[in-house]
Structures are given as structure tokens and as C-alpha cells.
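INFO worker-7 received task bundle
INFO bundle size: 2
INFO processing item 0
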Amino acid sequence: MSVDVSAPMPGNILEILVNVGDSVKEEDELLILEAMKMENPIYAPADGVVKEIKVKVKDSVEADQVLMVLE
């Protein structure tokens, strides 16, 4: 079962902390989203393996945009 990790707000991708194939635990930091001049960590919503990363550093994202997929 896949789990989408979505942006909670519009912003820019500042840093990606995981790679495809990495195992993550619920609440692990996956990436840093810069919004309103603040760095906002995006956490894994569940345990899983990073299946796909749909953004890259410096990308501008919208609220609810899928950033990565966990399996």
C-alpha cells in the first residue's frame, strides 16, 4: 500500500533528507520545506520505504502537492 507525502502549505523545497529505497519510520524527517521564511520539516506519516521522490531542491510547490511516495 502506498502512502503519499503532501505539502501542508505552499513553499520551496530547501533540502531532501532521504533517497529512493531508504527505509523510514513514522515521524522521521523526509525533507525541509521553506515557507513564510521559516524552515518546516516534513515528517513521514507512516513507516515505509521511499518509493518515489517527486520534487527536487529549489522546486516551488503548492499546498497538497504530492512530494514523495512511501510504500
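INFO item 0 finished
INFO processing item 1
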Amino acid sequence: MDRHPGSNRRVIATLGACFLALASAPVWAQSDAELKQEIEALKQGQQQIRKELSEIKTLLQKRPTAAAPSGPNVSGKIFDLGDKPVKGEPTAKLTLIEFLDYQ
């Protein structure tokens, strides 16, 4: 039982007014012709992007590959580091030595 007589009618009237206001408002601000024109412009932009990507791919494939950096073969050699600062365990299976020139 409703405590406030007429409240259902007010709710229905308010909802009806909101529905009419929304129904009369244009869903699309653009006409069909404008939408078609915008879609066509987007398609052309996609075609341009595809063309540029294809050109980039072609240029990358033509570019010579860089050779792997090479240096002296020091595999298995022992270096005496003396009292130089080190990090890690002295019995590690791999030791990285960085040679720097601060000139």
C-alpha cells in the first residue's frame, strides 16, 4: 500500500517527461552524408598508414644487418685482478670484467 497518494503518478509523469526529452534530442549530430564522409576519411588514413608501414618494412629489410661485436678470445683465460674491487663470489662460473678508459 502506498503511503503517499499520487506519488506513483508523479514518478510516472517524471519518467515520461524524461523519455520525451531524450526521444526528441538528436542521437547523432551528424547527417548520414557527414558520417559517410568521415568514414571515408578514416579509410583513407588507414590506407596511408598501411602504405607507410609497408615502406618502413621494405627499408628495414634492405638495411644490412649489423655484425655481432667481436673482440679477443679470452675464453678460459685467467686474469689476476690483484686488489681491485670485485662483487660476488670468487668461485663464480662466470666473471665479467669491464675495461674503461676515462680519458
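INFO item 1 finished
INFO post-check item 1: The first helix runs from residue 7 to 24.
INFO post-check item 1: The helical segments are 7-24, 32-62.
INFO worker-7 idle
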